[in-house]
Amino acid sequence: MTQQKANSQQAAFIEPIDEEPDLPGHEGALERKPEWQPRYPGSGRMKDKVAIVTGGDSGIGRATAVLFAREGASIAISYLEEHDDAAKTKELCEAEGSQVLTLAGDLGALGEAQKLVDATIDRFGRIDSVIQIAGEQHPDYDVTDITAEQLQRTFQSNIFSMFYVAQAARPHLKEGATIVNCSSVTMYQGAPILLDYSATKGAITAFTRSLSGNLVDDGIRVNAVAPGPIWTPLNPCGGMPEEEMDTWGTGVPMGRPGEPNEVAPAFLFLACEDSSYMSGQVLHPNGGSVVSG
Hints:
With about 290 residues, this protein is α/β, with parallel strands linked by helices. It is built from nine helices and seven strands; from the N terminus they run αβαβαβαβαβααβααβ. The chain has one domain (about 45-275): NAD(P)-binding Rossmann-like Domain (Rossmann fold, 3-Layer(aba) Sandwich).
């Protein structure tokens, strides 16, 4: 890459926007805490493995990191800036006997993914699973309210970051390695006030299926999880309008939002050998909503 090209890419980076200043939100500040606790004893399904978990400080990321730790993995947790949440997740994973690395940074910025991968290799010497959960959303009732900065920021955080991490990790992924991306039910059903977010989730699903085909001959499996409404800091801290929160998540057949520890097992299943005959697929922990694909 020429310096001119690198400078051009770096100049295109959009800093966090201030439309929802509480995002991405601190789990410790929530009055009702999300349920992250693993629901069953570990069985060694990730024993001696090393997993990167982006967005691993809170919500689904925390539940997934702790579950992987219980199953025997060493964990590299990437997060944006919620140092208190990241420290708590590190503590929880270490209590499961795991070795843990935490690294703050905006993965939508050129070079941050490489720093994450380099730090993981320096600490653990290998990468077996890449779990991509980090993302953001900004609600708007009208498509004309979505600014160019917001549009780019949402794509930058949600899908550009996945390309960057996959590119940085690829040289270290051997046969048997796995990548699991976080899509969303909004990719399948749409979300009228989350237009740009839903579009990124469609891109993530297409990326997952295409990357699966790209890597399957090398024995690397790529899948995704598409959660429905899950109680994490993202929505109550500005990811949904305040007036929507009283009924948020009640429209699914089960009549309630899900908990992070109801989603984490889907990431574990796709990361370990239990799903050895699956690639390019999407799991749907969404409260009973029937979707295609």
